[in-house]
Structures are given as C-alpha cells and as structure tokens.
Amino acid sequence: MAITAAMVKDLRDMTGAGMMDCKKALAATDGDMDKAVEFLREKGLAAAEKKAGRIAAEGVCEAAVSEDGKIAAIVEVNSETDFVAKNEIFRGFVSAVVNQVVKTTSSDIDAFLAEPWSLEPTKTVKEELSSKIAVIGENLNIRRFQKVVAENGFVESYIHGGGRIGVLVEVETTVNNDVTREAAKNIAMQIAAISPKYVQRSEISAEYIEHEREILKAQAMNENTGKPENIIEKMIEGRLNKELKEICLLDQVYVKDGDLTVQKYLDSVAKEVGAPVAVKSFVRFETGEGIEKKEENFAEEVAKQMGM
C-alpha cells in the first residue's frame, strides 16, 4: 500500500511521534493506522493512548439534574462556530434539549429526534432542530446524550469552561447533604480535569490488560536488551500498574490534596458523615472530542475557483 503524506500527518497528530518514525511505522504495517500506532508504542515513540488531535467541532455540553437528585442527563449539541455556541438562542435550545432528556424514555439519538418537542408537542425534536438551523443560519447537531438514574444515592453534575466539558457522577450513599454533595462536585471536577476511563480496576477487561502488557513488554525488550527476563517482567508490571492508576478514578491522586488518592478522599468523607460514600458511575463529555472539521486552505480554494 502506498504511504501518503496525509497518512503520515494523521499518524503524527495521533501519536506525537516524529515524521520519519511515522513513515517507517506505516511502511512496516502496510498502512494500517492502528497497527502503526502500536508499532510506535512498542518502540517507545508514542504515548499509551492515541492523542485526540485538534478538536475543531464547536458547541456545548450541558447537564440537568432533577430536584431530588435521582435523575440526571447530559447532552452535547454541536454548532459550526464558537460564535453561535455562545448565542442565547442556541444556549436556550440546548437547555431545553437536556431538560427533555431528563424525562425521555428514548435510548438513542434517532428515537429521541422522533419524539414530540416538549415545548411544542405538534413538532418533533428533529423538526425543532431544523427550525433552529433556519433561524441561526448554521448547521446544528444533537450529537449524543446520556441519562443516569440513581437508585441508592444521587447524581451530581459539573460543567467546565462554559460547556467545553460536562460531567455526571452517580454517588452511592444513604446521606444526601451539603457534605456529600460537595464531595460529589469535587469528584466531578477531578473527572473533568484528569479524564479517567474507569471507576475502578475491576471494570477493566482481562483482554485490555493483557493487550497493554504485550505492548509494554515489546517496549521494555526494545529498551533493555540483555537484562534478565525477571527484571524485565518487574519493569512491565510496574509500568502497567502506573498506567492503570492513571485511568482508574479511585486510584488517581486527588487533585485537591496530593497526599490522598480519590478513594482515600471518599473514605474521609464517609467517616465525616458516618455512612459509606462511593462512586458508582460517571459520564464525561468533551465538546467535539473525536470530531475534526475539514481544514480549509483559502489560497487553494481561490486558485481552484480561478482555474489555476
């Protein structure tokens, strides 16, 4: 397979590796992007996770929680420009969308779009979206939503950066007061800042752990040829343990107190209120994550129009 400059650029954006290293990785893997990422990781030339790259999509994340804290929703609604994302009409629409999600029984976007619009039931949500597109003059998209129902506790929300990041945290506890609410808000801020993938290690599949172990083994063998196998194995386990601590919320260093892990912070809150306090689940949306707008080259566009 021919390796193009665009493929090299994409791999470089994903991994942060050098251009020649990316070219070699693509050549060695016959242009397979995922295998090329792993090739670079094994050589110690890429981070453990693919970098998100430049996030170009605009819009906001918004959250809503019922008065009793038992039901919450989070949505991401996209616009073409940041200017529209700050528009009052757009913001009002997003608020109405998330409030409808709190009450919806739909489990996916298509079903949600087909629902009657809560503020004008003669329309569907999709029809209201179309009318907002006509009024605002930009393409808009209700990209995703998630609803959380707490059976044994409550849900707390946190919105960061004017809607750039939205978080919901489901807390299991028999105590719903200012102390546990503040703790939940602190945990939501932690999730917004550090972006864990799991609550705890028991949620991680054995396949994921084995896959990471193989990557780290290849990396260690490349770095430490000649070292005894038992030493290399200890290095692998140490690195794997460090990686798992970074992606598991409860194992992370608590951002407000570096002497504590998140689990130890929750233990201190539980001791204060006299009841167990645990994180059951969380949702983290970041506006535009995984989406890239097409980069326009103005000079090329002009040349094309002029037939140059």
Automatic annotation (TrEMBL):
Recorded family membership: Belongs to the EF-Ts family.
Q: Name one GO molecular function term.
A: translation elongation factor activity
Q: Which domain of life is it from?
A: Bacteria
Residue ranges, annotated region (Involved in Mg(2+) ion dislocation from EF-Tu): 81-84
Q: What is the lineage of its organism?
A: Bacteria, Bacillati, Bacillota, Clostridia, Lachnospirales
Extract the SUPFAM superfamilies matched here.
Elongation factor Ts (EF-Ts), dimerisation domain, UBA-like
Kindly give the Pfam families that the UniProt entry links to this protein.
EF_TS
Q: Which residues form the signal peptide?
A: none
Gene (name only): tsf
| Primary residence | cytoplasm
Q: Which UniProt keywords apply?
A: Cytoplasm, Elongation factor, Protein biosynthesis
Q: Where does this protein come from, organism-wise? A: Anaerocolumna cellulosilytica
Protein's UniProt name: Elongation factor Ts
Q: What does this protein do?
A: Associates with the EF-Tu.GDP complex and induces the exchange of GDP to GTP. It remains bound to the aminoacyl-tRNA.EF-Tu.GTP complex up to the GTP hydrolysis stage on the ribosome.
Q: Which InterPro entries match?
A: EF-Ts_dimer_sf, Transl_elong_EFTs/EF1B, Transl_elong_EFTs/EF1B_dimer, Transl_elong_Ts_CS, UBA-like_sf
- Name its cellular compartments: Cytoplasm
Xref: PANTHER family: ELONGATION FACTOR TS, ELONGATION FACTOR TS, MITOCHONDRIAL
Cellular component terms, GO, for this chain's entry? cytoplasm
